[in-house]
Write a structure and sequence with these properties.
With 133 residues, this protein is mainly α. The chain has helices spanning 3-30, 60-63, 67-97, 101-108, 122-127; strands at 34-37, 43-47, 53-58. It has two domains: 1-31; 32-127, Ybab, Chain: A (2-Layer Sandwich), CATH 3.30.1310. It has a three-stranded antiparallel sheet. A hairpin with a 5-residue loop joins strand 2 and strand 3 (53-58). The protein is rod-shaped.
Protein backbone atom coordinates (compact mmCIF):
# COMPACT_ATOMS: atom_id res chain seq x y z
CA UNK A 1 0.00 0.00 0.00
CA UNK A 2 1.46 3.36 -0.95
CA UNK A 3 1.55 6.32 1.42
CA UNK A 4 -1.55 8.02 -0.07
CA UNK A 5 -3.59 4.84 0.32
CA UNK A 6 -2.32 4.40 3.89
CA UNK A 7 -3.16 8.01 4.72
CA UNK A 8 -6.69 7.54 3.33
CA UNK A 9 -7.15 4.28 5.28
CA UNK A 10 -5.97 5.99 8.49
CA UNK A 11 -8.28 8.94 7.82
CA UNK A 12 -11.24 6.59 7.27
CA UNK A 13 -10.43 4.84 10.55
CA UNK A 14 -10.25 8.21 12.33
CA UNK A 15 -13.64 9.21 10.92
CA UNK A 16 -15.15 5.87 11.94
CA UNK A 17 -13.85 6.30 15.51
CA UNK A 18 -15.21 9.87 15.64
CA UNK A 19 -18.62 8.69 14.42
CA UNK A 20 -18.69 5.90 17.00
CA UNK A 21 -17.65 8.32 19.77
CA UNK A 22 -20.32 10.81 18.69
CA UNK A 23 -22.98 8.10 18.72
CA UNK A 24 -21.88 6.89 22.17
CA UNK A 25 -21.76 10.40 23.64
CA UNK A 26 -25.17 11.20 22.12
CA UNK A 27 -26.63 8.10 23.73
CA UNK A 28 -25.03 8.99 27.07
CA UNK A 29 -26.31 12.58 26.88
CA UNK A 30 -29.82 11.31 26.16
CA UNK A 31 -29.80 9.45 29.47
CA UNK A 32 -28.67 12.43 31.58
CA UNK A 33 -31.06 14.01 34.03
CA UNK A 34 -30.73 16.09 37.15
CA UNK A 35 -32.89 16.04 40.25
CA UNK A 36 -33.06 18.26 43.28
CA UNK A 37 -35.27 18.79 46.29
CA UNK A 38 -35.79 21.89 48.39
CA UNK A 39 -34.04 21.85 51.79
CA UNK A 40 -37.23 20.90 53.67
CA UNK A 41 -38.51 18.61 50.91
CA UNK A 42 -41.54 20.68 49.87
CA UNK A 43 -40.49 20.57 46.21
CA UNK A 44 -38.73 18.02 44.02
CA UNK A 45 -37.81 18.65 40.40
CA UNK A 46 -36.25 16.70 37.58
CA UNK A 47 -34.66 18.24 34.50
CA UNK A 48 -33.59 16.63 31.25
CA UNK A 49 -30.26 16.89 29.42
CA UNK A 50 -31.00 20.43 28.21
CA UNK A 51 -31.98 21.59 31.71
CA UNK A 52 -35.67 21.81 30.82
CA UNK A 53 -38.11 20.77 33.55
CA UNK A 54 -39.33 17.21 33.12
CA UNK A 55 -41.14 16.75 36.42
CA UNK A 56 -42.08 18.81 39.44
CA UNK A 57 -43.65 17.54 42.64
CA UNK A 58 -45.15 19.64 45.41
CA UNK A 59 -45.98 18.36 48.88
CA UNK A 60 -48.86 19.73 50.95
CA UNK A 61 -46.30 21.92 52.77
CA UNK A 62 -45.47 23.62 49.44
CA UNK A 63 -49.13 24.29 48.77
CA UNK A 64 -49.34 26.14 52.08
CA UNK A 65 -46.53 28.56 51.16
CA UNK A 66 -47.05 32.11 49.94
CA UNK A 67 -47.06 32.25 46.15
CA UNK A 68 -43.94 34.45 45.83
CA UNK A 69 -41.90 32.32 48.24
CA UNK A 70 -43.07 29.15 46.51
CA UNK A 71 -42.09 30.54 43.11
CA UNK A 72 -38.61 31.49 44.39
CA UNK A 73 -38.14 28.07 45.94
CA UNK A 74 -39.22 26.31 42.74
CA UNK A 75 -36.74 28.38 40.70
CA UNK A 76 -33.89 27.77 43.14
CA UNK A 77 -34.59 24.04 43.23
CA UNK A 78 -34.79 23.86 39.42
CA UNK A 79 -31.49 25.74 39.13
CA UNK A 80 -29.87 23.26 41.50
CA UNK A 81 -31.06 20.38 39.29
CA UNK A 82 -29.83 22.23 36.19
CA UNK A 83 -26.37 22.65 37.72
CA UNK A 84 -26.29 18.93 38.45
CA UNK A 85 -27.26 18.00 34.89
CA UNK A 86 -24.71 20.53 33.62
CA UNK A 87 -22.01 18.76 35.61
CA UNK A 88 -22.96 15.41 34.05
CA UNK A 89 -23.02 16.91 30.56
CA UNK A 90 -19.58 18.41 31.09
CA UNK A 91 -18.19 15.06 32.24
CA UNK A 92 -19.51 13.34 29.12
CA UNK A 93 -18.37 16.08 26.77
CA UNK A 94 -14.92 16.26 28.39
CA UNK A 95 -14.45 12.55 27.65
CA UNK A 96 -15.65 13.05 24.08
CA UNK A 97 -14.11 16.41 23.13
CA UNK A 98 -11.07 16.65 25.35
CA UNK A 99 -9.84 20.02 26.51
CA UNK A 100 -10.01 22.75 23.90
CA UNK A 101 -12.20 25.33 22.14
CA UNK A 102 -15.12 22.94 21.56
CA UNK A 103 -15.28 22.06 25.25
CA UNK A 104 -14.96 25.76 26.13
CA UNK A 105 -18.04 26.43 23.98
CA UNK A 106 -20.02 23.72 25.80
CA UNK A 107 -18.83 25.01 29.18
CA UNK A 108 -19.82 28.59 28.30
CA UNK A 109 -23.38 27.42 27.59
CA UNK A 110 -23.90 25.40 30.77
CA UNK A 111 -25.79 26.73 33.81
CA UNK A 112 -23.46 28.80 35.94
CA UNK A 113 -22.39 27.25 39.21
CA UNK A 114 -21.75 30.30 41.32
CA UNK A 115 -20.01 28.22 43.94
CA UNK A 116 -22.41 29.47 46.56
CA UNK A 117 -23.30 27.03 49.31
CA UNK A 118 -26.81 25.66 49.17
CA UNK A 119 -29.19 27.38 51.60
CA UNK A 120 -29.31 25.60 54.95
CA UNK A 121 -33.05 26.09 55.32
CA UNK A 122 -35.89 28.06 53.80
CA UNK A 123 -35.51 30.95 56.26
CA UNK A 124 -31.87 31.40 55.23
CA UNK A 125 -32.85 31.27 51.55
CA UNK A 126 -35.54 33.92 51.92
CA UNK A 127 -33.39 36.13 54.15
CA UNK A 128 -30.54 35.96 51.62
CA UNK A 129 -32.10 35.29 48.19
CA UNK A 130 -29.99 34.93 45.09
CA UNK A 131 -30.85 37.00 42.07
CA UNK A 132 -32.64 34.78 39.59
CA UNK A 133 -32.39 35.89 35.98
Amino acid sequence: MNSAQQWLADYDATLARAAADAKASGAALGQVSGTASSPRGEISVQVGPSGALVDIRLTPAARAMEAEKLAQLILATAQQAQRRVGTHVMEIMTDYLGDGPALDFVRDNMPVDAGEPEPQDDDDFFDNPRVIV
